[in-house]
Amino acid sequence: MNPEELQALIAQGESLAVEFRSDQDPLSDTDLIEAVVCLANGSGGTILIGVENSGRVTGLHSRHRTHPNALAAFVTNRTVPPVNVEAEFVNLPEGPVAVLRVLAAHQPVATSDGRLLIRYTGARGKPRCRPLYPHELPGWRADRGTADVSALPVPGTTWPTWTHWSLRACAGWWKRTAETLSCWNCPTRELPARWAWYVSKMGC
Fold it and tell me: Residues near 77 by Cβ (< 8 Å), separated by ≥ 6?
């Protein structure tokens, strides 16, 4: 990323995909890793270290002016499973800014001390981080195509009950299909005879 591209990104402000982090104090290791985890469990994005929330560039603290590869290795070592980020330092007139690109995770990511976080839009429209709760994980996985929530067990049901309602739903679909074909003057004999028999028995 060149300085012009970075300045344009800063001018757009923070969003669900862009996080500004001040490094004047300097930025703590914990805050950095939590920011990475938040983005990874969300849609991914970019962290700019050395930029205030207002968008004012204050640059990297001298403690962090090491090497981009060292920063990327630190993130990898402090996340579970390890998160690989792309890191680079971009020099601006106000000082150097660290740019971390974080990809969206395909499995839940936590800090090395067990914090599971996700980025979200707060009540005032500002991006924030919050815990990713256990009951949210099935939906989280389903959104990423790594789990089939329809395969989860349904408490209080048995296989005969489930089979009955599944077949009844299918029978209703075939009945509606038959009615549609009749409206189009299509021969309903094209429907499988077995399903036609089931429709008549079920009274769908």
Answer: 112
pLDDT in tens, 19-42: 999 999 999 999 999 999 999 999
Cα of first residue to Cα of last residue in the chain, in angstroms, is 62
The three-state (H, E, C) secondary structure of the chain, written as one string: CCHHHHHHHHHCCCECCEEEECCCCCCCHHHHHHHHHHHHHCCCEEEEECECCCCCECCCCHHHCCCHHHHHHHHHHCEECCCCCEEEEEEECCEEEEEEEECCCCCCCEECCCCEEEEEECCCCCEEEEECCHHHHHHHHHHCCCCCHHHCCCCCCCHHHHHHHHHHHHHHHHHHHHHHHHHCCCCHHHCCHHHHHHHHHHCC
CA distance 115 to 113: 6
Question: Does the predicted TM-score (pTM) go above 0.90?
Answer: no
For the chain, what are the domain ranges?
3-149, 159-202
pLDDT tens, position by position, 2-19: 999 999 999 999 999 999
Fold category of 3-149 in CATH: 3.30.950
